[in-house]
Amino acid sequence: MRRLVVALLFVTGLLALPAMAGDLGPVIPKATGVAHIEGNLFMRINHMKLMVHDRDMTVHEGDRQVKYSLKACVECHAVNGHDAQPVAVTSEKHFCRVCHDYAAVKIDCFECHNSKPQISSSALLKPEMPDSTEIAAYLKEATQ
Ligand code: HEC
Ligand code: HEC
Ligand code: HEC
């Protein structure tokens, strides 16, 4: 019952008001990239149907160029942790968990799917750190 009430609140957008005040309701993290042409409200209500539909297209028909790719969701909706790296679904800051924890929704998608952007794209954000022994050797030589 609580789940139904919460779902209805999402649908009517009532949760947006307390969310803005920052006290009640989930505060949905901002995304990057172009917003959905369908609008935020539509996405709140229909995201699960869109993904399940596209998953069936991929799994049953072999079509990998789907519009509502779960891989794409976690890229635009990545949330960074304290280390400035995208968090996995184990963190309560994860985009998908913010609402789901609030609405007591459990999904199994991330048992198979990656919950954060692939290394290849997040690696671009990570500066290459030189080996500390190399620095120590350099400093030793420089001060001699
Ligand atoms: C190209 C980037 C991009 C992709 C891919 C993407 N989104 Fe979004 N999404 C956005 C942006 C931008 C917004 C607008 C809200 C914002 O600024 O955070 C948004 C909004 C939403 C909202 C409404 C949030 C709110 O505040 O009401 C939901 C729900 C959502 N997306 C789910 C998904 C799901 C599920 C997927 C994968 C099927 C997905 N998105 C893929 C960029 C993206
Ligand atoms: C704006 C809040 C919000 C965000 C963000 C959000 N969800 Fe949801 N999601 C919900 C709500 C609310 C339900 C439950 C709807 C219902 O019970 O009718 C739900 C249900 C689902 C379901 C169906 C679960 C079931 O048992 O029926 C799936 C799958 C799902 N979400 C996937 C995702 C994924 C993947 C993400 C992140 C990419 C995400 N959602 C982000 C609010 C959200
Ligand atoms: C048992 C493992 C498993 C689980 C659990 C699972 N998937 Fe998948 N999913 C797959 C595999 C395998 C593919 C095919 C990937 C490929 O061939 O590119 C796929 C493909 C997809 C695709 C299309 C490809 C893409 O880029 O995203 C979507 C969308 C998708 N799944 C959504 C979901 C959602 C939503 C859930 C949770 C309700 C879920 N999956 C749970 C294994 C799983």
Point out poorly predicted stretches: 121-127
* End-to-end separation: 74 Å
Rounded mean pLDDT score: 81
Structural class: mainly alpha
Largest sheet: none
**What is the overall shape?**
elongated
Question: Total domains, how many?
Answer: 1
Q: What proportion of the residues form beta strands (DSSP E)? A: under 5%
- Binned, the helix content reads 40-55%
Number of helices: 7
Description of the structure:
- This protein is mostly helical and 144 residues long.
- The longest helix has 22 residues, at 40-61.
- The chain has one domain.
- The protein is elongated and about 70 Å long.
- It has helices at 2-12, 16-21, 40-61, 70-76, 95-103, 119-122, 132-142.
- α1 packs across α3.
- It is built from seven helices and no strands.
- The N and C termini lie far apart (74 Å).
- Bound molecules: heme C (3 copies).
- One heme C (HEC) binds next to α3 and α4.
Task: Give a quick precis of the structure.
It contains seven helices and no strands. By secondary structure, it is an all-alpha fold.
